[in-house]
UniProtKB/TrEMBL annotation:
Keywords: Methyltransferase, Transferase. It comes from Pseudomonas fulva (strain 12-X). It comes from the Bacteria. Signal peptide: none annotated. This is Methyltransferase type 11. Pfam families: Methyltransf_23 (PF13489). GO terms for biological process: methylation. The keyword Transferase applies. InterPro entries: SAM-dependent_MTases_sf. One of its GO terms (molecular function) is methyltransferase activity.
Amino acid sequence: MPLDHQQLQQITRRTLAHYQASAEDFREGTRDHDVSQNIAALLRHVHGSAPLSILDFGCGPGRDLRAFKALGHQPVGLDGCPQFVAMARADSGCEVWLQDFLALDLPAERFDGIFANAVLFHIPSQELPRVLGELRASLKPGGVLFSSNPRGENQEGWSGERYGSWHDLDSWRRLLDAAGFEELEHYYRPTGLPREQQPWLASVWRKQ
């Protein structure tokens, strides 16, 4: 059964409340995560040179905003958690927008690339086609979207106080293809481990 408006609002409120309450622990727990492989995967496919306009979608406390800025780019952050937005602004010095993922207000054709690291899986699958379309519209022609999500068998629901959708590669491809993206590459993380020990599916897509 499709989720109704009230259920979608509950998903947003409850998931964001979890991050709001645990923002400091989340920042400390993820501060040293090495996602340089993911940042490089986005940047090597973007046409052009620094400074590139990058949207860090679901930027959290701002770790990756700092990384993009240090590389000479012009990143903008976006998150739905007020505490994360405050942290990201203070820590990175970048522009950071407070927006609900299910009620986005994005400028048209603004960004060379979108970095969606460990975030799109929080969007209910029925809403993903619309959200992906909105992200696509905010990319410049030929712009690039990077996504990394915990992979699964296309199950969906609550994990503690957070809602998630866990897609396999075929499901993710169908969603992105339908949204008007062309696949550039995909890989599993962490690198160098057996597949059963690689819970993350990363992929890179170009706006068609």
